[in-house]
Amino acid sequence: MSDFIQEAANIWRRRDLVWNLALKGFKVRYKSSALALLWAVLNPLLMMFIFVAVFSYVVRLKIPNYPLFLLIALIPWQYLSHCVSLSPTVVISNSVLIKKVMFPRESLPLSLVVEHGLSFLISLCLLIIFLIAYRIRPTGWAALFIPLALVQVMFITGLSLLLSSLNVLYRDVQQLTEVVLLLWFYATPIFYPISMVPEKFQGWYLINPMAALTVSYRDVLLYAKPPDLFVVGQTVLISLAAFVIGWAVFRRISPVMADMV
Amino acid sequence: MLVREILYAPIFWRRTKTEFWALRGVSFEVGKGETVGIIGKNGAGKSTLLKMLCGVTRPTEGTFKIEGRISALLEIGAGFHSELTGRENVYLNGSILGIPKKEIDAKFGEIVDFAEIHDFIESPVKTYSTGMFLRLGFAVAVNMDPDILVIDEVLAVGDLQFQKKCIGRIKEFQASGKTILFISHDINYIRAICDTALYLKEGTLVASGDAREVVSRYTEDLEREEAVVSLRSGGLEVVFEDGKLSLVWQGRPLTGGPGMYSTFLVNGHWHESVLARWEVIERKPGGFMARGRWQNLPLVQEWSVRMERTDFVKIDINTEILESLQIENASINLMLDEGYRRWEASGESGDFPREFALDWQKLKVIFPDGGEKMNLGVLPDEASRAKYPAVSFALLRPPEGVNGVVHNSERSFMCRNLHYALLLPPGGGKIDVGKYTFFNGSIEIAP
Questions:
Q1: How far is A62 from chain B (nearest CA, A)?
Q2: B303: helix, coil or strand?
Q3: What pLDDT sits at residue B209?
Q4: Range of the domain at A134
Q5: Do B84 and A249 touch (CB under 8 A)?
Q6: pLDDT at position B224, please?
Q7: Among A179, A214, B76, B334, which lies 20 to 30 A Cα-Cα from A148?
Q8: CA distance A217 to A145
Q9: End position of a domain, from candidates B178, B196, B216
């Protein structure tokens, strides 16, 4: 345990590294494009329009404020989806660094979470504009969005640590995540309401932290009501477990990374 | 336990599957302020050793202990991103190496000065020349003010200009009492800057101790298989290694830096023989022939070296041009130890300045006088007569348009330089495809 604390302190000391790597990823993504950082806003905006257009006009569901309903779920989903699909390669694509420089290896997946966290924040700002445009008046419950989002960050961090290290041993992981992500997208009530899931399956269904979080985000932002405490509690535990397991696995594999990337 | 087994199994399974000991049973100790060279062929375990010392990989068995802050330079510019500017990369690289931002702020000017990229610091690194890139990478790594500096074969990637710059910086480190571990293929550098050396062979330590002794043990081994030749006769040893020839007299190097090498100026860039790919094509008692293919020029040289007497080395060099080429300057250099105090050129002589200046100093220029040969030489002074025999570097049957120059090198090289150059019209002369005589000459030692 003291090992863990020491290591956590070590990573905390090097937090500037995580931040700089995240910033680098962010900058590099937009550097050579003519519109540069504008893309950081334009990209999610266009994405939102496409999703809203497709799901509003093609998949016609009778849900009030459907574009908002969709975006509240879609934005957090995209955060997870970006991190999960990029994590498996974040260590192996930095093989030169891993082989030649000693630094806390955790900073690679962590920087990915931070980097896409920045995109997440930008998208959230857009979401707020949409909320205002739809004249949704936020209540006090909306403040719960922040702790809920932090639970999601913890969950994503765990997954990123797990996937980035496991993929060093088995490159199959990166293939698998693509498929699993697709399945996961449909298993999360993003473009449909949870009420469409048969009641008897809902307990199982909500074990999926993304399903539970999506439902809770809608509760606090759109429906101005508290989230289901049991579901939230369960999600916190699962996310914590994901974080601990992810980190433990990463720590187990990181000493041999230089030999295997 | 299942999760545990799943996680453990692959690691063990892969390990046993490809069991190979890169390094085993190697023990040594390095004192504070020592400079230790690590030599050995590719795959001998040199890099693995350094990687373990800086924590990149862990030893399967055994331990080591390090006291002090260690900075490793295993690869120049590892972690540089081509899209980012020089400045952004300096800060990013610094933070990867664990240098606090404040420290980088303080050293930033020094780093930019060393890298000589003032005007380009805000440009993306992808626009940099190789030299700029290497200098910047080197500067960041050595400026973190470590107690122990670990350098893995990074000089080999740059040209002589870069190498001597780095060596200068390494010497500053040495002077400030830091500990240095230094891998180099270049035995001359090991001989010149290291106190002691470790010789690794197939993962074991075969020799350690005084750098010069370990190096000569290594060259003996190398000679049998690689592009290295060592000729010995009397007290003189002539060592050829990858496009440079060095002279050792009774265990003491007479040449400095790269020794004798040839170089071509094309398009404003020097292309030295040390950067060519060499192979020894013929060996016989007292002589050898080596062939080197320049990597960035359509050019091949053949060096034929014969030790005709114990004090006389005959050198014949041919150049083959594979595609016609604009050459601005073609020259051959002999770099000699700073222990030499006087020069000699076609009968005239003079003193080398005591101090090395910031730039190369031209001391004497000679032209062909219609005679059979041109001669440049260096002499010891009274005090160093016992250690340094006089060396003369002669050009036989000099063609028109050649000159011979005596230089005092700039400060970081700290060498005396004898040099023959072919003067070509400004902008370069077009050289057609064909075989040319580049140099017929000799090096003579007079104890």
A1: 45
A2: strand
A3: 92
A4: 2-260
A5: no
A6: 62
A7: A179
A8: 6
A9: B216
Query: From the CA of B96, how many Å to the nearest CA of chain A?
Result: 6
Average of per-residue pLDDT values in chain A: 91
Q: Are B57 and A259 within 8 A, CB to CB?
A: yes
Chain A touched by B157 (CB under 8 Å): no
pLDDT band of B424, cuts 50, 70, 90: confident
Mean pLDDT for A183-206 is 92
Chain A residues touching B14 at Cβ < 8 A: 169, 260
B175 reaches A (C-beta below 8 A): no
Alpha carbons B25 and B15: distance in angstroms, whole number: 19
Chain A residues lying within 8 Å of B124, measured CB to CB: 31
> pLDDT for B183-195, tens place per residue?
887 788 888 889 9
Same domain, B260 and B208: no
What are the angstrom distances between the C-alpha of B17 and each of B14, B48, B372?
A: 5, 19, 67
Residue B160's CATH number: 3.40.50.300
DSSP B239-272: EEETTEEEEEETTEE-EEEEEEEEEEEETTEEEE
Q: In 10 A of CB B265, how many CB atoms?
A: 17
Weakest mean pLDDT among B129-143, B301-315, B319-333: B129-143
Chain B segment 1-40 residues within 8 A of A by beta carbon are 3, 7, 10-11, 14
Is B390's Cβ below 8 Å from some Cβ in A? Answer: no
Domains of chain B: total: 2
Number of domains in chain A: 1
pLDDT for B1 equals 37
Per-residue confidence at B16, pLDDT binned at 50, 70, 90? very low
Q: What angle do CA A201, A207, A211 make, to 5 degrees?
A: 85
pLDDT digits (tens, 9 = 90+) for A31-77: 777 777 788 888 888 988 888 888 778 777 788 888 889 999 999 99
B13: closest chain A residue by CA: A169
Question: Is residue B59 pLDDT above 50, yes or no?
Answer: yes
Q: Is A170 on the interface with B (CB under 8 A)?
A: yes
Inter-chain touch A21–B72, beta carbons under 8 Å: no
Across the interface, whether the CB atoms of A27 and B83 are under 8 A apart is answered: yes
Q: Are residues B196 and B236 in the same domain?
A: no
Chain A residue with minimum CA distance to B84: A28
Nearest-CA distance A97 → chain B (Å): 6
Contact A101 B92 (CB under 8 A): no
How high is the pLDDT of residue B18?
A: 52
Mutate to test the interface with B, among A24, A162, A170 (most CBs of B within 10 A): A24
**Per-residue pLDDT at B2:** 45
Residue B309 is part of a domain; what is its CATH number?
2.70.98.10
On whether both B312 and B386 belong to a single domain, the answer is yes
Max distance between CA atoms of chain A, in angstroms, equals 57
Q: Does B51 lie at the interface with A, CB-CB under 8 angstroms?
A: yes
| B281 and B164 housed in the same domain | no
Distance, in Å, from the CA atom of B28 to the CA atom of B208, rounded to the nearest integer, reads: 9
Sign of the Cα pseudo-torsion (A153, B94, B74, B61, in order): negative
- Domain region containing B407: 223-446
Please identify, among B182, B216, B250, the residue that sits at the C-terminal boundary of a domain: B216
Same domain, B167 and B258: no
Q: Taking CA atoms, what residue in A is nearest to B94?
A: A17
Two structure tokens written together for A234: 């369960």
Q: Is A169 part of the contact surface with chain B (CB cutoff 8 Å)?
A: yes
- DSSP-derived 3-state class of residue B165: helix
Predicted complex ipTM: 0.84
Q: How many angstroms away from the CA of A75 is the closest CA of chain B?
A: 28
**Pairs of CB atoms within 8 A across A/B:** 77
Residue B15 has pLDDT above 60, yes or no: no
From CA B409, how far away is CA B415, in angstroms rounded?
5
B147-160 pLDDT per residue, tens: 898 888 877 777 78
